[in-house]
Amino acid sequence: MPLRFNLVVGGTLFALAVFVGLFAPWLAHTDPVMDANLLNAEEPPSWTWWFGTDAQGRDIYSRVVHGARISLTVGIVSQLINTFIGVSLGLTAGYLGGWWDDFVNGLTNLMLAIPSLIFALAIMAVLGPGLTSLLIALGLTNWSFSCRIARASALSLKSQGYVQAAKVLGYGNLRIMVTQLLPNMLGPIIVIGTLGLGSAVLAEASLSFLGLGVRPPYPSWGSMLSEARDQITTAPWLSIFPGLAIFLTVLGLNLLGDGLRDILDPQSRSTRV
Amino acid sequence: MTAVPLIEVDDLRIDLDVQGRRVAAADGISFRIDRGETFGLVGESGCGKSITALALIGLLRHPLSIGAGRIRFEGREIQNLSPARQRELRGDRIAMIFQEPMTALNPVSPVGRQIAEMFVLHKGKSWREANRLAIEALASVRVPAPERRVKDFPYQLSGGMRQRVMIAIALACGPDLLIADEPTTALDVTVQAEIIELMRDLCAAKGTAVLMISHDLGLVANVCRRVAVMYAGRIVEEQSSDDIFRNPAHPYTRGLVGSLPRLGSRAAHGQSRLQEIKGVVPAITSFPHGCRFNPRCVRVTDVCRTVEPAVDLLDAGGLVRCHHHG
Amino acid sequence: MRAALSGVIIMADSASSAAADVILRVRDLRVHFHLSGGLLGKPRVLRAVDGVDLELKRGECLGLVGESGCGKSTVALSIVGLQAPSSGSIELDGEAVTAGGSIDRKALARTAQIVFQDPYASLNPRQTVRRTLEDPLRLHGVRARSEIDDRVATMLAHVGLRAEHADRYPHEFSGGQRQRIGIARALILNPKIVVCDEPVSALDVSIRAQIINLLLELKETLGLSYIMISHDLGVVEHMSDRVAVMYLGRIVETGPWREIFERPAHPYTRALIAAIPDPLLRVPFVRAKGELPNPLKPPDGCAFSPRCRYVEDPCRREPLPALERHRDEHLVRCWRAKEL
Question: How far is B203 from chain A (nearest CA, A)?
């Protein structure tokens, strides 16, 4: 199979972001929080300061590298929560049907009607800022897409012969959902999960930008943008590099999601050679 | 003196593009259909019967293409016609009906309009005139209350009614050749019998030649005067439909005729083991060497595994492609 | 003592409910679907199965024939517990399946199994053959590794697959082999009754004989009883001991296979036989006219009357004809059966 452009580029970008996040302590030149030195404040990018320095003289490169850790952790963990909630609700709703399906459907529609960022803001307002509340807020507000996909897959899969056969063999509902339905809907769920991961990284940036979520001095890409907004004309590198990090990561995830859709979509995969 | 046949297929090869590699999905296909004649192509899924039909009507699309050979319509080669000329031929001179009429009909247009369109497109009639002709066409395919049915949308009709509409569209312009690809496979047997009878009557009355394609040898033999059996991209036998049932020459045809439980055979022979054709149908990408049927054949010898058999003439009239026929 | 007694009355009326050799008894089965009537219409009732009685004896194959929409598949699904009946009773091996609505799926699974039509959709594409066969065994309490391996290997051999096939996925098999796997899955729990729902219709013509032979062989070696559902009369005649013909949710004719196919009494059965496209088969019967009526608005009187060539006035009026004795075990639901 010819390697697809979007799969390769997207995968590379995302792998790079994960690599940077994992090895941040070794890749960073200085400590992102402690190594402030007002003598080096607002240096433009140079051979010494690759991405320049901020008003406290901290190395932007090191902060972007450490920011990958926080941004990706928040993105991945919250997206895992989203996928878990979405798939559990969607799978059970689609397979069991009845009042539970109506209830989940109503809940999904409700979630889709409220802008998820505003909903997340409301949750943050109740829980107070911080990493844990950020994870909860983002993890509770973005599951409607995976729920819809899981429900639609369950609806179409449950009439398949092998699901019927499992019932006749005496399988219980939970066993059927886990062994017969779930493995056969993983493809679209992974695609939606990957695309959702991009929005989760963006949402983290937005919330941190608004001062909720990760608080200074700890670096996340969103909080760095937030701190940089007053100096956007005098020291543009303060915004450019974290912004570029967000842009490339989200772009990479979207390309990866599209590429995965191409290979995991059951329609395009031949069943018999 | 022999008249020019209506359609003549000469050593046709159809290529399938499998990720840049070209494999022959069907080759060495030769047959002729005379004006007003009924001819059947029988075979299992993947034997190449449907793509042969698509080649005749100029509807092969990537990854399929004509690799070699000629198709002559009234003596004129048509395999290299421009798309515009092919469109002219299609519908007007050569028409086709498909297995599933629901997907072949436009779901958002009333059936009367879809029939009338043919008269406007190919015969240059006005819409008013075409609508009148559409009602006549529906009546001719024995649809009750045609003046009301023309306003129906395809979903409002039963499967049998939809197939009647397809036949009305196909025969609207009085084509010389009707290609019917599994026209009744989606229908119940009692309805199938009616549709087949309708198709046979109408084509006989109008002198339309029929190329019928099906996996059901009995059905094809019922409709057609001559039958060709395809296996793994080759025509392996061609005979009159009576002979092919009574004296099948190719071991594959023999197997097909003998393997199916026919009504009345249990009363005659008891509940004996059915004669099986062993093995499986080969994939297009891995047709066997030599005779393509050799891994499944009961008469196989060494020569079958290495040498592809040539076409032999049968005494009774007919063709067979087998080293050990008869 | 009771068993000896019941052995004598097996051929008698259905009064012999204790007859040991009746393994499946369906009584007055009805499956009605309630459809909403859209924005304005009244809710409507689709009577998919409307009062079906069946008996299957041990070791017997009962053929269920009819065109799409006649309710034969709904009967099959009810027997294996995939479709809840609206009313009526199903007794398997003396145990009521449908009493009180709740069914013991596991117990039912060890008695009745089903082979589906489509060998492509009926196997989980993400499970190897071994898993497909092992999981049900574990679920039903077979714990010992050696026993599981043993039973999987035996079953593969039974259906004509090789041991190394066990670790392959469904997409690596052809249609005929997949159907063999489907049969193996249906038989792995040693059921007594197997419902075969059009088991060869989706297969290539040259493969069908293999599967038909296999099913008949397994019936003998494993002592199975079959409900054989098909629209192909040739297949049904070849496999069945008794046959029931269904039309619009009801049985219109039933009896031993020879009676049904050599002396069919119902005009619909005759029409089915007349519609077989076999150039060598010459039958004196007339075909049906028209198509299946809308099952939501079934005709008054005999359901077949609008399509029947022998129709007379009484046929179109209520009440509908009863399923009555025609000759010995041959029952027919037709006002004119005796005259025809």
Answer: 38
Question: Which residue, among C294, C292, C201, has the nearest Cα to C247 in the 3D structure?
Answer: C292
**Which of A169, A183, A271 comes nearest C120 by C-beta?**
A271
Report how many Cβ contacts below 8 Å link chain A to chain B. 4
Query: Which amino acid is it at A109?
Result: N
Which string of b and e fits A84-100 if b means at least 16 CB within 10 Å? ebbbbbbbbbbbeeeee
Angle at C126 between CA C122 and CA C127, to 5 degrees: 75
Structure tokens at C1: 């003592």
Helix (H, G, I), strand (E, B) or coil at B23: strand
Residues in chain C: 340
Contact C332, C324 (CB under 8 A): yes
Indicate if the alpha-carbon torsion angle B185, B187, B191, B197 is positive or negative.
negative
Question: Distance (Å, rounded) from C-alpha C94 to C-alpha C23?
Answer: 7
The DSSP symbol for A53 reads B
Q: Which residues pair with B77 in a beta bridge?
A: B72
Neighbours of chain C (3+ CB pairs under 8 A): A, B
C85: left (phi over 0), alpha (psi -120 to 50) or beta: beta
Beta-strand relationship, C250-256 and C242-247: antiparallel
Q: Which residues pair with A8 in a beta bridge?
A: none
CA-based radius of gyration for chain A: 22
Bridge partners of B180, per DSSP, are B97, B212
So what's the pLDDT on residue B326? Answer: 66
Query: In C, which residues are within 8 Å of A173 by CB distance?
Result: none
CB contact, 8 Å: B18 with chain A? no
> Is residue C11 scored above 50 in pLDDT?
no
d(CA A205, CA B14): 56
> Would you kindly state where each structural domain of chain A is located, as residue ranges?
64-272
The nearest CA of chain B is from the CA of C296 a distance in Å of 14
Cα B35 versus chain centre, distance: 16
Contact B3, B69 (CB under 8 A): no
The sheet with strand C44-57 has its strands ordered as C44-57, C22-35, C87-92, C95-96
* Assigned token pair, C250: 């009801």
Which runs of consecutive H residues, i.e. helices, occur in chain C? Answer: 2-8, 72-79, 105-109, 129-139, 145-158, 175-187, 205-222, 233-239, 257-262, 267-274, 313-316
Number of helices (H) and strands (E), helices first, in chain B? 13, 12
Query: How many other CB atoms sit within 10 Å of the CB of residue A215?
Result: 15
Cα A100 from Cα A79, distance rounded (Å): 24
- B210: which 2 tokens? 């029929």
Q: Is the Cβ–Cβ distance between B164 and B176 less than 8 Å?
A: no
CATH number of A64-272: 1.10.3720.10
The residue assigned the tokens 């309490």 is C141
Query: What is the Cα–Cα distance from A98 to C124, expressed in whole angstroms?
Result: 25
Q: Considering only residues B218 and A35, tell me which one the structure prediction assigns the higher pLDDT.
A: B218
The answer to pTM > 0.90 is no
User: Mutating which of A153, A164, A168 best tests the C interface, going by the most C Cβ atoms within 10 A?
Assistant: A168
- Inter-axis angle of helices A237-264 and A5-22, to 10 degrees? 130
pLDDT at A265: 60
pLDDT per position as a tens digit, C239-296: 999 999 999 999 999 999 999 999 999 999 999 999 888 877 777 888 888 888 888 8
What does the block give as tokens for A238? Answer: 């303060």
